[in-house]
Every structure is written in C-alpha cells, then in structure tokens.
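INFO  loader      accepted 1 record
INFO  loader      residues=145
INFO  predictor   begin
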Amino acid sequence: MFDFIRVASAVPNVGVGDVDANLNQILTKAQQAKEQNVDLLAFPELYLTGYTCADLFFQKTLLDEAKLALLRILEASLSWDFTTVLGMPIAVQNQLYNCAVVLTKGKVDGIVPKTFLPNYNEFYERRWFSTSCDLKEKTLPSGLL
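INFO  predictor   done
INFO  writer      dumping tokens
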C-alpha cells in the first residue's frame, strides 16, 4: 500500500569557487548513492560553486563554469536511477538567483529559486541574489541552460 524511498543527503568537501572540484565530488557521491540504491540524493545549497563565493558570484566565468558543470552532471545522470537536487546560482533576466536544481535521467525536472534570503550577521545573500518574488514571470525562460 505504501512505497518507501531511500533519501540521502550528500555532505562532500566544498571548494569555494572551484566548480571542477565540486563537480568531481558530485560525481563521486552520486556513484556511492547508485551503489546504495538511493532514490533521492540532495546536495547542499549553492554546492556547485560554494556558498561563500561572495562577490565572485558577480563573475560571468564562475556562472558559466557552473552551467557547464550542470551539463556534465545531466549527462552523467543518464545512468543514475535516482533524482538529484543540487544548489547553484542561476542568472535570469539580469538577476542572479540562489537555486535548487532538480534533475533525473539527464533532464532538469525543475529549478526552484530561493524565496527567503537571509541578510544578517555573516549572511549577505541579498547583496548577490534576488528573491524568487522578484521574478517577472512564474516560470524560468526556456534555453536557460
């Protein structure tokens, strides 16, 4: 009557601004998840670039590297039998969003921009990111990736 799913939270080492190292960690953790018959694998917020990139988030090079890494992850996910959620910055309509990307078998199932951005103590997300409430449209434009 009820089905159960195996959910795993990946806690890899993060290289701040080192998209290639983070990509390799994702592929390693995904292989482990595959071996353990995971159904849903979740990575930390902004993991692909690192959460503490600060003003590096304004660099086109970092954002382009993140997009290319996502394409490599999508390709690798063709052999995975689970859904993955990973965090990365995504630029839309001249604004930057802190997003969770949901993907399965080589396809992006959804992109969820963060709504509530902290802006106190060591958290300055509003300096770099727009909230999902700032989106002019309710859906992200096609051709984003």
